[in-house]
Amino acid sequence: MATDATAEETPEEYEAFLGTVKRLTNVRNAAGILNWDQEVMMPEGGTPARSQQLSALSAVSHELLTDEETGEQLDALEAADLNGDQRAIVREVRREYDRATSVPTELVEEISKTTSEAHPKWKQAREEDDFSIFAPTLEKLVELKREYAEHVDPDADPYAVLFAEYEPYLDIETADRVLTRLKEELVPLIDEVADSEADLATDAFSGEYPEDKQEAFVRDVLDELDYDFDRGRLDTAPHPFSSGTQFDARITTRFNEEDPMGALLSTVHEFGHATYTQGLPDEHYGTPLGESRDLSVHESQSRFWENHVGRTRAFWELMLPAMQEQFPQLEDVTVEEAYEAANQVYDDNLIRVEADELTYHMHIVVRFEIEKQLIRGELDVEDVPEAWNDKYEEYLGIRPDTDADGCLQDIHWSHGSFGYFSTYTLGSVLAAQIDDAVREELAVDELVREGEFEPIHEWLTENVHSEGCRYTTDELIERATGEELTADYFVDHVTEKYGELYDA
Fold first, then answer.
1. What DSSP state is assigned to residue 329?
2. Which H or E element spans position 41?
3. CA atoms of 231 and 229, how far apart (whole Å)
4. How far apart (Å, rounded) are the C-alpha atoms in residues 455 and 432?
5. Which residues contact 23 (CB under 8 A, 6 or more apart)?
6. Residue 236: beta bridge partners?
7. Tens digits of residue pLDDT in 127-154
8. Helix, strand, or coil (residue 133)
9. Which residues are tagged catalytic?
10. Which of 366, 371, 381, 369 is nearest to 158 (CA)?
């Protein structure tokens, strides 16, 4: 872990400021637990009270951050003699403070209340396959988020302002550039795969797999990967996610009794998020140094474990025997067949979270383009289903028959999370870049094959996790990998891998 020498004396203002930061962090973390509970365990009737609870905590957070005294502390500290860690904390809080002081508390409360009420509306709309149930709430959220962006920076592109909420140090031009390049590079490759006559073992895992046995198996996988259950837990949720702190990093997954691969890779993905969170430094809990860097970095960790570990031949050499022990019907499946099944490209998949590694990014492009149009006022909410379906047909050659399989499949818009989706692709690109850097120093496949994950954890912790928010995203990427963010490694990775699998 890199740490600058401590300044001779810590300014008095800094101690008071740090107390404010820690109170703010703890209020937010308490809200995080309530959000987790709402999505995992809360009874359906709890929404009216929960929306008020979350709204109140959101208001308290906003007031703590935007208090006049916080601003005075920041002003004083920016001119003070601080060490590198202290300056990093001030930098991160200043960025948040400047955004938050632009937004009225009443608007923050309204957004929080609306998003809490939006979740059950989205859920009902999805269950009843009726976008019109969710549309009025989505329209309100779009309007509120436009208003939010207007307060933060009235002269900026509103979508760029919202994107910066999740990626403050990689600009919207970077996201545009990466997504445009992947669309140009991947669509021809996807077409070649579709035309390929390669005969992969896509049915290697066909059959019935009881949910309880799947859960037992993925728990064994988490143990093998060194997930710390003393600081985490595994539950189910309609849309898998992970959340928490280094002391309590929770995972959710979901099970389909006809698709054990889905639960396995989903769990490994969320493990990647959680092991990042568990790797944050305990001693810096409550400050930005004890918090993860932005969403692209977080997604790089989940994609590293899912795609560059969980989809490798080495992983299946390790885990297939354990899976066969849990499911005797797989006794004749070979490692190569398991590897092919884990890496098959689907020509008819409509669901982002079930997408293969190659076509996944076209799912992201659809969302990215629609979000930009919505926030910029170029697309009406009522026209979202048709626009969504048209883009799926254009980019993936398939068209949803239902809203549930189309524009209602993701939970993100019910959270008001506009600007979030592109971080999934940025994270995948970064994961490939990190994988290359790790493999320069470690024999990753050999370690995975032997179940020796500690050296991989150590590399990631030393170069990514332990840094928290000490560095900006671009600085962290360059320090960890030796160069700026580039899509080169991802393009090379999928071109080589799927070229081999499909003779493309």
1. G
2. none
3. 5
4. 18
5. 64
6. 253
7. 999 999 999 999 999 999 999 999 999 9
8. helix
9. 270
10. 371
